[in-house]
């Protein structure tokens, strides 16, 4: 079982690939997005789309184009939600069907290396920094990278629903290292998400990578606002 598969529930198709391998040809709608990109960017984009189509096939979904919008976010086929991530050495994608209750997915893959000290203030809240400073020195940099990854995953999960750009301080992350889970608390309103609303996710550190994951599923609205549940 792949590392990604351990982080996502049944009903989510997952796929990974080595980003250094040759990629399949892009669909015309995808090619238009990277027609003027440098070779490395083209390769990353193409391998990501390969992974997306492999993940679709695990759910019996025919291979389809996944172009990108003006905001650079993937445009998933009707009825499908998904997320794509890559770093040096690993690319991955996850997809699921809206008809099965999935509203949004988040995935981020990072190298399992400490976060640069000069990025700490830009990414971490004061509370997160206090928590990191209480850790043994051999752990704090790696956990800072995990916090960064979790925030990337939260962003990818909320953006398809809110359409809002939020920065790193818009949410705070609480890592539960023993359970390999994290909680993300909003500090801004990004409708349908509200200040103090909390989402749950999972993470894994293995084989030289940090992977963070989030699944958002819809439930019946009890008020005028759509309510959501997260699986973790």
UniProtKB/TrEMBL annotation:
<comment type="pathway">
    <text>Siderophore biosynthesis; enterobactin biosynthesis.</text>
</comment>
<keyword id="KW-0808">Transferase</keyword>
<feature type="domain" description="4'-phosphopantetheinyl transferase N-terminal">
    <location>
        <begin position="29"/>
        <end position="96"/>
    </location>
</feature>
<dbReference type="Pfam" id="PF17837">
    <property type="entry name" value="4PPT_N"/>
</dbReference>
<feature type="domain" description="4'-phosphopantetheinyl transferase">
    <location>
        <begin position="104"/>
        <end position="192"/>
    </location>
</feature>
<keyword id="KW-0259">Enterobactin biosynthesis</keyword>
<dbReference type="InterPro" id="IPR003542">
    <property type="entry name" value="Enbac_synth_compD-like"/>
</dbReference>
<comment type="similarity">
    <text>Belongs to the P-Pant transferase superfamily. EntD family.</text>
</comment>
<comment type="subunit">
    <text>EntB, EntD, EntE, and EntF form a multienzyme complex called enterobactin synthase.</text>
</comment>
<dbReference type="GO" id="GO:0016740">
    <property type="term" value="F:transferase activity"/>
</dbReference>
<protein>
    <recommendedName>
        <fullName>Enterobactin synthase component D</fullName>
    </recommendedName>
</protein>
<dbReference type="InterPro" id="IPR037143">
    <property type="entry name" value="4-PPantetheinyl_Trfase_dom_sf"/>
</dbReference>
<dbReference type="Pfam" id="PF01648">
    <property type="entry name" value="ACPS"/>
</dbReference>
<comment type="function">
    <text>Involved in the biosynthesis of the siderophore enterobactin (enterochelin), which is a macrocyclic trimeric lactone of N-(2,3-dihydroxybenzoyl)-serine. The serine trilactone serves as a scaffolding for the three catechol functionalities that provide hexadentate coordination for the tightly ligated iron(2+) atoms.</text>
</comment>
<dbReference type="InterPro" id="IPR008278">
    <property type="entry name" value="4-PPantetheinyl_Trfase_dom"/>
</dbReference>
<dbReference type="InterPro" id="IPR041354">
    <property type="entry name" value="4PPT_N"/>
</dbReference>
């Amino acid at each position: 079982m792949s590392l990604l598969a351990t982080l996502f529930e049944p009903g989510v198709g997952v796929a990974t690939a080595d980003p250094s391998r040759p990629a399949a040809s892009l669909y015309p709608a995808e090619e238009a997005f990277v027609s003027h990109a440098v070779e490395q960017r083209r390769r990353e984009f193409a391998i990501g789309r390969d992974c997306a189509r492999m993940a679709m096939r695990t759910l019996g979904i025919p291979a389809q184009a996944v172009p990108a919008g003006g905001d650079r976010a993937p445009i998933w086929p009707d009825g499908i939600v998904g997320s794509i991530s890559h770093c040096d050495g690993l690319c991955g994608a996850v997809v699921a069907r809206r008809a099965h209750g999935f509203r949004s997915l988040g995935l981020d893959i990072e190298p399992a290396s400490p976060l640069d000290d000069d990025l700490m203030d830009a990414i971490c809240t004061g509370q997160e920094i206090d928590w990191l400073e209480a850790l043994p020195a051999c752990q704090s940099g790696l956990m800072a990278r995990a916090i960064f990854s979790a925030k990337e995953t939260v962003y990818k999960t909320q953006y398809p629903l809110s359409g809002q750009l939020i920065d790193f301080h818009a949410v705070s992350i609480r890592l539960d290292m023993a359970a390999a889970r994290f909680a993300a608390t909003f500090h801004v309103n990004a409708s349908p998400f509200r200040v103090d609303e909390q989402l749950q996710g999972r993470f894994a550190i293995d084989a030289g990578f940090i992977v963070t994951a989030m699944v958002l599923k819809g439930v019946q609205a009890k008020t005028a606002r759509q309510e959501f549940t997260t699986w973790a």
